[in-house]
């Protein structure tokens, strides 16, 4: 889990200047890690040697986020030569694990592995291993988070395969609608799909989640193909289509733009020019910049309860309706939090328990800083306490303070105007949203 004490630049470090823009490089690669005795993947050479070389290339090129699929029995070899600081632990070899892993230059929170609801053995043995997708919330800079998904769907082209694959893709799209509401998102991995396989409905990420395929955007000028165009391996052109894909979107806090797409095949070859995998790796370069309208703090607490976000509500305002009242309820822990805007909109999260404490803000008074404390309850990290201090020096608080606290301060010229996090009967996880005064 992220060291959230270090992660807040502006709130905790005097004179620290947080980045407001930057670059992000990502790669997706099916690493052909099934045991050689089961599947050669038609790749020459020894799989252990090839996997060591794959890890060497991961370290050499230093992509910021790498999603791998079929990372089964040669996982240790890839990690032996790779040097990325943050890497997921294997979920097991073939027949045991999903083969999905992430290597990154950034830490993350809320990591989850999710198994497919449906699978098919019509064209192979997809049901013999617990394939699915992973989810993580990656912090790429101070107050800049992207929800990252890695997936490997059902293979094959029989009717049952396409039915299962359609279900797989829909499962991810629905998960995004539940757990990534309001957030910047990147989905990338082995979809086993093409736009010409219409029964799969790979367009669900565009139509349901508002996401963009950078291959379609940059290589095909926004036009999705209707005629199949297969890639050779290694591919010498970007004009062909593979089943390895990426979809992305920004949000009200961070603008995310894809400025380059490439099949990275030529970077992942053996010394004799042979391929290392039966899939062309895909690479995308992004630029990002922070919004002038909304920002956010680091998250505190743990990944429990249901996701909530005030970003969709706040981003709908052309001019923010000023917060006029804060209400917190708590006892042993923090039960609920609420901000009431001038137009009467109430941004409330949590349960119904606890003792309520309220503070009505003056006409020119703003919520400027907060002390937030976390602690353990039933072996889960939860929010125990919050104290708000306004520009006028007024204070309102609820819950019970612990020794594990941070102070979050809105940047100069900004105010605290909303919340992000997870809740149930209490507040489990919390981040604060900043808006200009």
UniProtKB/TrEMBL annotation:
It comes from the Eukaryota. One of its GO terms (molecular function) is phosphatase activity. GO terms for biological process: phosphatidylinositol dephosphorylation. Keywords: Signal. Residues 294-436 form the Jacalin-type lectin domain. One of its GO terms (cellular component) is cytoplasm. Residues 1-18 form the signal peptide. InterPro entries: Endo/exonu/phosph_ase_sf, IPPc, Jacalin-like_lectin_dom, Jacalin-like_lectin_dom_sf, Sph/SMPD2-like. The keyword Cytoplasm does not apply. This is Jacalin-type lectin domain-containing protein.
